[in-house]
Write a structure and sequence with these properties.
It is built from 10 helices and 10 strands. The chain is an alpha/beta fold.
């Protein structure tokens, strides 16, 4: 399983952070909303890079107004200019409806001359999942972070993944990094910002050889933000390597 680390965009201009973490063997996911010119230099150095469309920001706030055709054009330009191989569609079903999502997907794929990674949402239904696995080499399950797919419904990941595997299609779990669930559900890849939680919530993490453990900071003590972030990031990189080999 490939575990893509996301959320490093908040450190993208911090040379101290990037000089302290590996790059050549990393799986990294970044959002088009947060990527910057300074960030571009690192993309070719990563072992694999995924580009998210930034759709989640719009799904969280449906009042945001956007010229979607212009957005897709800029998104496609970035993909072409930086030779991005793995990128997600604009899965803004809840904002513009599925038909418009399909139109924007077609436009994106025409502009890039590449398949995007379409993102299945529960509202699309099982038949749409079957259609996706037949037409695409790589697809994703969305709605996990937002709670659209409840924890009780995670049990359906296995039959969905099995349907995809029958067609030789890879499945990405967007934002899914439940440590026990990663052992149970055989996603081909997932992504997570969980390495940033310690920096924000006051704990350090370490990889024990199979999973990640954490130590809460003592009450009244003050953690060094950047140092904590660097430490936790590197521990997640260890877990990333473990996941690639054993999960």
């Amino acid at each position: 399983m490939q575990l893509y680390l996301a959320g490093e965009g908040c450190y993208v201009k911090d040379k101290g952070f990037w000089e302290s973490v590996p790059k050549s063997d990393l799986f990294v996911l970044e959002s088009f909303v947060y990527v910057t010119d300074w960030h571009k230099q690192f993309i070719p150095k990563f072992k694999s890079f995924m580009l998210d469309s930034g759709a989640f920001s719009f799904m969280q706030n449906s009042t945001l107004i956007c010229n979607w055709d212009e957005y897709v054009r800029r998104y496609a330009d970035f993909i072409n200019q930086n030779n991005i191989k793995l990128f997600f569609e604009l899965d803004i079903d809840s904002v513009v409806g599925l038909k418009e999502v399909e139109r924007l997907r077609d436009k994106l794929e025409t502009l890039t001359n590449k398949q995007s990674i379409p993102v299945w949402h529960k509202s699309r239904g099982k038949d749409y999942w079957v259609k996706m696995v037949k037409n695409y080499n790589y697809i994703a399950i969305g709605g996990i972070v937002s709670g659209e797919i409840t924890k009780d419904e995670h049990k359906f990941f296995t039959p969905l993944i099995n349907l995809a595997k029958e067609q030789g299609t890879k499945v990405h779990g967007l934002g899914y990094t439940n440590l026990e669930g990663l052992k149970k559900y055989k996603f081909d890849s997932v992504d997570s910002t969980a390495w940033t939680y310690g920096n924000r919530s006051g704990f350090v993490q370490w990889f024990d050889g199979q999973t990640l453990q954490k130590i809460k900071a003592k009450q009244g003590s003050k953690m060094k933000a950047k140092e904590t972030a660097i430490h936790n990031f590197n521990e997640w990189v260890k877990f990333q390597r473990y996941a690639e080999k054993y999960l």
